[in-house]
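User: Fold this one for me? It's Probable S-methyl-5'-thioinosine phosphorylase.
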Amino acid sequence: MKLAIIGGSGLGRIDGLQESRRETVTTPYGEPSAPLQHGILGNLEIMFLPRHGEGHTLPPHRINYRANIAALKQAGVTHVVAVAAVGGITQAMIPQALVVPDQIIDYTYGREHTFFDGRDGNVTHVDFTYPYSDALRYDLVAAARCADIDVIDGGCYGCTQGPRLETAAEIARMERDGCDLVGMTGMPEAALAREAGLEYACLAVVVNRAAGKAEGVVSMAEIDANLVAGMEKVRKVLGVLAAL
Ligand code: HPA
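Assistant: Here's what I get for Probable S-methyl-5'-thioinosine phosphorylase.
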């Protein structure tokens, strides 16, 4: 297994990663968000890619998801853990909860979302019934439990376009649709990973109650505070995962 971690908001770097080199990669789809960071975490050689760029400069709809996944594939990656900060919709999804979702609903639009765009004259469809790798999900849940960190095994991640947060009515609709979590970067990343044949799972951190799910409006200060505390837990889980 060759593991890559895609870091989301609040995880622009991984403490404990002994970085050996940075690799600037170009792909047929353009540049990934940042150079690939190669290093050792625990017992594992891993790669790290900050999804929003090194200085957190790329909003969710401007991330080149195709270049990110293609760069990891080119570098020989087989497994991807995607770390994501999300809003919590259903009751259990409280701030600082860690969740390993098992389903996705895609509400994004206008993103370059496939490697199979038909330009080569081929029409290719991939199965996406279960959008995440069961084996990697299992490892993430096991790593959290091993680190004595509560984790919710399963949940539906609804991916919105952003960068604005949602209205209360949009969140109510997403809840009726069956979403437990809301984020802005889960798609098309997961689908591209599937198209590329990568084992892919998400480790989500709830950083706020979604719009309309708590008193008043969503507070960015609250998000920032929960991000810091939540990513601390994520680092521990990743450390154990790499040592499993
Ligand atoms: N909505 C969408 N994306 C998010 C949220 C949210 O409430 N919180 C963190 N990422």
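One thing worth pointing out: The chain is about 25% helix and 25% strand.
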